[in-house]
Amino acid sequence: MAAEMPFVPQSHKAVVYDKPGIISTKVVTLETPDPGPGEVLINLTHSGVCHSDFAVMTVAWKGLVKPTAAGQIGGHEGVGTVVKLGLGAETTNIKIGDRVGVKWIASACGRCAPCLVRSDGLCFNQKISGYYTPGTFQQFTLGPANYVTPIPDGLDSAAAAPLLCAGVTVYSALLKSQTKPGDWVVVSGAGGGLGHLAVQIGARVLGLRVTGIDHASKADLVKESGAEHFVDITQFPRDDEGAAITAYVKSLTDGLGASSVIVCTAADIAYAQAVPFLRFNGTAVCVGMPESDLVPIAKAIPSTIVTNQYRIVGSSVGN
Fold first, then answer.
1. In this structure, what are the phi and psi dihedrals at residue 285, rounded to the nearest 5 degrees?
2. pLDDT score, position 160
3. How far is 47 from 270, CA to CA, in rounded Å?
């Protein structure tokens, strides 16, 4: 006896950015699409809300290729159930009833130079969920069957959703830091959406010794996430070019500084602090995207980088 097919309504609700450039959303009713070849239709049950969604809605990032269009459906951390398969989608082993996730990179071509070296987060032909591709702030969405993420049975959907962007992003950043168990890592913005996951993954998965930096209100969260030390940014002057906070961070990290600094916060001052926090052979990993004017990283002085053999690397989303 054939399995009963899930009911798919002709229309569904979505949240759109009705006035890009300001904080404004609107609930609209849309026609539920049919999946094309190689696609699946997903009945979304959960979606994370990322700071990137705010930046896209308000057109806050100076580096955006083009302004966000009115009517854009936001969201890129979605989890739901597959309810319909497009032609050929069954060849990917995705089945109706499977739980899957939709990421920031909604699709990658798999054929361009970055994709061929497993850097599909940099795909030249990528489509970004919630930015010129319908996102996850809706009841139903389409996804490529070969690129949606299967969600393990034992993982709650509410917990899985933020891992699809924030989780894989900081995991990738920690790997790019080239740290090893027992190394000191500083997480700047440790109490934020990215930061608190970086602390947990760094301390509990990768065996790193974590010092978290953030506002005093985030102290309990950062410590509960696994940080050995918490640094309250409000306790240090802002007019000493970071001398006091640098000295304190180094005192917490064997007097030498951290093997890596993961900058999760979108603040230029955090980037200015990152390089001085490092010990010899240290790595500063750039993750947070400032919404201010595009400026170079302060304190990234070539002679300092050379004589200490520092590395400064960028880290986008995971693959």
1. -110, 120
2. 96
3. 29
SS3 letters across 245-309 = HHHHHHHHCCCCCEEEEEECCCCHHHHHHHHHHEEEEEEEEECCCCCCCCCCCCCCCHHHHHHHC
Residue with tokens 């301390």: 203
Question: Could you tell me the end-to-end alpha-carbon distance of the chain, in angstroms, rounded to an integer?
Answer: 39
Closest to 282 (Cα-Cα) out of 192, 151, 186: 186
As a whole number, mean pLDDT of residues 138-167 equals 95
Q: Which residues of 234-263 are buried (b: 16+ CB within 10 A; e: fewer)?
A: eebeeeeebeebbebbbebbeeebbbbbbb
What pTM, to 2 d.p., does this model score? Answer: 0.90
Q: How many CB atoms lie within 10 A of CB 187?
A: 36
Helix/strand/coil (H/E/C) assignment for every residue in 69-123? CCCEECCCCEEEEEEEECCCHHHHCCCCCCEEEECCEEECCCCCHHHHCCCHHHC
By DSSP bridging, strand 149-150 and strand 140-144 are unpaired
Share of the chain above pLDDT 70, in %: 98
* Amino acid at the residue 140: F
CA–CA gap between residue 95 and residue 81 (Å, rounded): 10
Closest C-alpha among 169, 208, 175 to residue 192: 169
Closest Cα to residue 84, out of 134, 127, 141?
141
Residues 17, 71: Cα–Cα separation, whole Å: 5
Dist CA 210 CA 181 (whole Å): 11
